[in-house]
Here is the input.
Amino acid sequence: MSDARDDVTHRLIARALAKLVTDDPTIPPHPYISRHLAEHAALGNVLDDDHVPPALLPWESSATIRRLLRREDAAPSSQEWLKAWAGLEPFLRRSDPRSRLTSLFLAHHAATARRRPPSPERPGERARLAGSQVTPLWSDWASPDNVLAVSSARVEAVAHSAGVFVSGDELGVIRTWHADGTPAGAPLYTDGAAVQHLLALGDGTLVSGGTDGAVRVWDRSDRARGGRAAAAYRRPGTWLSSLTAFTSARGLGFVLAAHSDGHLTALSRADFRPVDPFPGGPPSLGERPAVLAGIRRPDGGGTVLAIAQGADVRLWDERSGTRPGPSGHRGAVRGIVALHRPGRYAICDETGGVRICDVDSAEPVAVCDALHTGPVTSLVAVTVDGLPAVASAGSDRTVRLWHAETGRPVGGALHGHTGPVTALTTLPAASAGDGGRPRGGGRLVTVGADKTLRGWPLTGHSTRAPAEPWRRVSAAALPAPGVLGRLLLAVADEDGTRLWDIEAGDPTEVPDADGVTALAWTSVGAQPVLLTALSDARVVLRPVRPPGVPARPSGELTGHALPVTSMAPLLHGDRSLLATGGADGTVCLWDLGERRLLTTWPGHGLSVRSVLALGTPGGPLIASAGTDDTVRLWDVDGLRPDGAAIRCDQHAVTAVAAVPATSAAAPGVPPLLASSGEDGTVRLWDLATRGPARDRPRFDPDDGPLTALVCFRTAPDRALLAAAGRTAVHLWDLCTGVPLLRIVTGMPLRALSAHRADRPGTTAPVLLATSEAGISVFRLAPEQP
Here is the structure.
């Protein structure tokens, strides 16, 4: 227990240091303040937005805000900025202070003004936000939550060992982490094969296995030095399907490894040499991969081995050999885990089912409710508020907790991952706090395909109100200039489609618009029209009525064999045209006034990811980008292909954008095209030569595959480019290639678009950022000093 006098001292220090922080967040504070102010505030029980001012956060260098917030037993009520910062901080390592400030501003707005229209600033707010290059207009955004660390590669396995947790990734790198997400040692390297299984033994030894068929053993000295471990056993041409610990009736310990060809390897815990611990021969696995789990017998007489191959489950022990396990699985078993109670274990399968079983019964003890909407990928035994439980990781991006005796749900789902959850483990109470001191009931650690490692408190989960689930967004669109006089945002998510007047805050339901795959605005005659592409491959036209009046269908377009993925309206003379790209690999051109298909271009073969209408000296063209790694051009007037395809060498092209010309551009020169790729690059293309644009910079933000792209002007002679990667929106000056801003989102985006929406006092463009987890609309003013 801390001395009350020490608390007062730290409180006074925190208050004094807070007064030294300038209101201008572009001015760096003294290094002592940026490193230690938050620590003093936490020790003085005043860790709040007043004692740790928002202007300090872009300069905060101790990386401890997340840890300090978790340490607070009675958290102050005013922590909006601190919590927004804690969610972003793991993603901000390479960001400059201005980018950090801008990202914090957007995250705070998303957390505190969800679905609220812009309002007059609160007193003092302008000073706090000086230096931000964006002005949030509307947010419905799932801010990053409970993030411990961000990995550069997909994490496939995780385990806890000696008060830390260990992760293995797809590149064969094993990393050790403290409970607060900071590195706990040097990385360990395999031969580059993905690490898909980690088994932590009680003496601190770690066993790993993966796609090269090798079982590797790492002791404490290996892990401390970051050295390489020799393979204890390698079976060439195979991969490991499972690792588990096994104890014989005589108390001898082994590590069992199942290989993809059905071979079962046993390694002695004494020296990790191959041995044969199976009286009468090992259980037969045939030639199929298996999932294994060692389960303690209730009488303490060794271990029962659970074996799953497909939907078949068997049990083996030294007394009775092989016998059938619980039946009735509707899909292949993905995981088995021993529970805290001896003899009990849990099984999960690819249909999303979880069952609680007992080694002495052929029937499940309990069948958990079918709450996961996809395969369950991993299980781990946990303790929630003193009760035995099991946690399940789902490909539906959620984690759920179940009572280990009854199979009933414990609390609500854990939402946060933006990709499938691939593995999970626990940090016991003794290691979940600072310095190994017990704090609460431990922590659940999860890893996902989104390359994040997240921590979830288990204490209080059964009584905590479930977090509101974020609806998965499939499409969003703002009107083009001249289509509407107001910013009317169309959003399609799991609950349907709505029109939001982001300046008034009023939503209008769009009827009969389920399963939307793309949205766009256009005008037909003088009537604004919302275009909705549906999962049955139709495109429905909906004239927009006055506010509050539903936009009902007035026609539809049919012609694609698979759903439309992208739409590009085009006003050409007195005609309103529409280009659509589909998952069927075709591009269609439509006359919206006549509701008629003009032509179909089948050039891509694979899915079309993006379509764009652009003007050239020779007339309008449609550009399309596809997963066949090409950009193709189509002549609108001639209804034919326009020249050869551009081979982009970007693995797959995810988006295409037109580079706006400046006043210095020569008349009659075709515009440049920009393409973003799954290789993480943006490239510029000359339409005259159909090759790379000369004397132009390349853009490589090193942020994973790029998923969205937009080019726009903010001044007569300044063109900008924005591309979305795995964790951020990256902004460059198109002419010089100079990076201007890195707006951290903490999640990949589906689309980016820029819009002119002039308002009194500003001509700054409005950007719409769309991700599966939400929407953000903001003005961008990169010329701001």
